[in-house]
Amino acid sequence: MQDAYLLDYAAGSGPAALRLLAECQSALNIEAATRVRDIESGFGGMLASLAPASLSAGAFDAVLERASVRAVPARGEDDPIDAATGLPRALSPYLERSADGGLDWAKRLGGVREIPLDAVSDERVEVSLVLLQPGGGIPHHDHGAEELTLVLTGAFHDGHALYQAGDLCSAMPGMRHRPAVQGDDPCICLTVSMGSWKPVNPLYALVDRLAGSARRRH
User: What rounded mean pLDDT belongs to the chain?
Assistant: First the structure.
């Protein structure tokens, strides 16, 4: 398992997109959660081994003022999975609901649905939730930069390996694959893309590029 982003998450550093990815994976994957706890313990041991240093007057109060204090959770809110969505609770602040109370999915080509997570995206990283229905998938494509895809529900096979809930698919530049849903359940994924994807079919690539331009204008 690649765990550089887990290390950054445990240290409270790294881009917001990768911290969100790590928190979601930790909610679904016991191996990832254990790795985060081990890293946090290691950092704690390093701090404990340092010689004490004197603090300036008022330093403790200043730290408390800057710390984000989490309210005591209501019953059930300590569960890492949000019962209302079935997804990791870390995603809940970024998800808007439609009029009927469901998630507000936007339609894309080929039956794919998407929720862009603009709050944790920037000019270098694009983050979104992707919903694939049983029997569906994403067209054959490669990548201009690294893309990390965390399976949240269901499963897919990309021609290289099977990925199930809690598994992370890391696609590097030049890697070609075609994710296809496995089983009878919808597959929801959290994707963190460091660059554009490149459909192998040139017609699909053109249509998707035009559709993407239209989405950005709105």
Answer: 78
